[in-house]
């Protein structure tokens, strides 16, 4: 399954374009722009599984760095500061990773 199977390709492009500049990424705004925040829990889990590159059941800091590239090949990597801010915003139990239940898009 690809992300465009769950999200509109134009919305994905617009969301990635909105955060092209370094230090401009905001996960909540990105999820709104790409339409993920309006998806069903099943669709959100489908997207999570695509983003979980190593299929560990978690999205770790190393995977977050390449978050935008999972949506659009060739997109920029997140800066270290953006990656840490994203992890901090989503990692409710402070285990250093984002879980599928309760943390991803909470």
Automatic annotation (TrEMBL):
The EF-hand domain, residue ranges: 39-74
What are the binding positions for Ca(2+) 2 in this chain? 91, 93, 95, 97
Enumerate the residues binding Ca(2+) 1.
52, 54, 56, 58, 63, 103
* Recorded GO CC terms: cytoplasm
Classification via SUPFAM superfamilies:
EF-hand
Q: Which UniProt keywords apply?
A: Calcium, Metal-binding, Muscle protein, Repeat
> Which residue positions does the secretion signal occupy?
none
* InterPro entries cross-referenced by the UniProt entry: EF-hand-dom_pair (IPR011992), EF_Hand_1_Ca_BS (IPR018247), EF_hand_dom (IPR002048), Parvalbumin (IPR008080)
The superkingdom listed in its UniProt entry is: Eukaryota
A molecular-function term among this protein's GO annotations: calcium ion binding
PANTHER family found in the cross-reference section = PARVALBUMIN, PARVALBUMIN ALPHA
Function per UniProt:
In muscle, parvalbumin is thought to be involved in relaxation after contraction. It binds two calcium ions.
Identify its protein family: Belongs to the parvalbumin family.
Name of the protein in question: Parvalbumin
List the source organism.
Answer: Electrophorus electricus
